[in-house]
Predict the 3D structure of the following.
Amino acid sequence: MQTIIFNQQQSIFNRFIAEIRDTSIQTDPMRFRRNIERMGEIMAYEISKEFPHAAKDVTTPLGVASETVMTEEPVIASILRAGLPLHQGLLNYFDRAENAFVSAYRKYNEKGDFDIHIEYISSPSLNDKIVLLSDPMLATGTSIELAYKALLHKGKPKHVHIVSLIASEAGVQYVQNMFKDEPVTLWLGAVDEELNSKSYIVPGIGDAGDLAYGSKI
Ligand SMILES: O=P(O)(O)OC[C@H]1O[C@H](OP(=O)(O)OP(=O)(O)O)[C@H](O)[C@@H]1O
Ligand SMILES: O=c1cc[nH]c(=O)[nH]1
Ligand SMILES: [Mg+2]
C-alpha cells in the first residue's frame, strides 16, 4: 500500500496546513473551511495523475487539438461532518464525480470512553469504481475503518484513495495494516506523532468538525 505525505515536500500546501493548525487563524471559520477545501483541490490534482487517461480530439474554433484526458470519474465518499469542506475541494476538481456520504461520530459514555456510531449512508453503487474516501482527520483510524465497511454494502471498489489532512502515526499504522493486501492508496497532508488520552491528535488542530461548523451539544 502506497502512502503519500504532502508536507514532506515544499509547496504552498504547507501554508494551508500551518494555517488550519494556528489558533490565531482558527478564529476565522470561513478561512478554516476554505483552507481545507484548497487542500482538497491540490490533493485532487495529484490523485488525478493516477487515473486512467486516453487521447481525445477536441474541436477548437480553429482546428482540432489532441488532449490526453481522464476517462473515468471517481465516487467521492466523505465522512460527516468534518469531511464536508474536504469533499467540496475534491469535487471542485473532480467535478463530474458521483458522491457518497457516511455519518460517523464519537458517542461518549459517562466514563469518557467512546464508540463510533454510523447511522446514515447515502451512496451510488461502488462496484468496480475508483473511490476517494475523505475525512480531514485520521486519529485512531476507526472512523475510516467503519465507514469503509459500511460503504462495502454498496459494492466493491476497484481502488480506494483514502484522503486525509492530519493523521496520527498510530492511525496510519492501523489503516496500513487493515488495507495491506488491498488496492488502496493513502494520501495524507501531515502525520503527527501523538494521540492524547481522548484520542485527539497532538499537535493536530483540535476538533475539525467544531472548527468548521461550531460546537455541538
Ligand atoms: O480516526 P478516528 O479516531 O475515528 O477519529 C477521526 C474522526 O473524528 C472526527 O470526527 P468527529 O467524530 O469529531 O465528528 P464531527 O466531524 O461531527 O466533528 C474526524 O472528522 C474523523 O471522522
Ligand atoms: O484530533 C482529532 C481527532 C479526532 N477528531 C478531530 O477532529 N480531531
Ligand atoms: Mg469532531
About this structure: The longest helix spans residues 29-48. The chain has one domain: 2-50+74-213.
